[in-house]
Design a protein that fits this description.
This protein has one domain: Transthyretin/hydroxyisourate hydrolase domain (Immunoglobulin-like, Sandwich). Helix content is 8%, strand content 44%. It is built from one helix and ten strands. It has a four-stranded mixed β-sheet, with no helix packed on it. It has a four-stranded antiparallel β-sheet with strand order 5-4-6-7. A two-stranded parallel sheet has the order 1-8. Strand 2 and strand 3 form a beta hairpin. The longest helix is centred in the middle third of the chain and has 9 residues.
Length: 119
């Protein structure tokens, strides 16, 4: 049985705070099909309450996390949806080691973002 799992952490780098209430969708990509696995919100620490993909479901392959940043930014910036610079942020990545922890953080600001494989 795999020991690995998937987590994330969303931080607002413009304000220096965790992002709460941001919805994240997890997809597994198989044969060019995006299969929706689950949707989870971030908590007050900018993390999900549990693992996005626990060890029991962890396998090699391609995953995609979709961060619904536009709704969060709208709440803060009070901008109209029609003029969003960032809205939905997809991050597609591969899992090659089923015994590793894959941590995919999102560092977010109103006009940019970055990610990396964390620990």
């Amino acid at each position: 049985m795999a020991k690995g799992f998937l987590t994330t952490h969303v931080l607002d780098t413009a304000r220096g705070v965790p992002v709460a209430g941001l919805v994240i969708d997890l997809f597994v990509i198989e044969a060019d099909q995006r299969n929706h696995i689950r949707s989870l919100p971030t908590n007050s620490d900018g993390r999900t309450d549990g693992q996005i993909l626990p060890a029991a479901e962890f396998s090699t392959g391609t995953c995609e996390l979709v961060f619904h940043a536009g709704d969060y930014l709208d709440r803060l910036e009070k901008t109209a949806k029609a003029i969003r610079f960032l809205d939905v942020i997809p991050i597609r990545f591969g899992i090659t080691d089923v015994d590793s922890h894959y941590h995919v953080p999102l560092l977010l600001s109103p006009f940019g973002y970055s990610t990396y494989r964390g620990s």
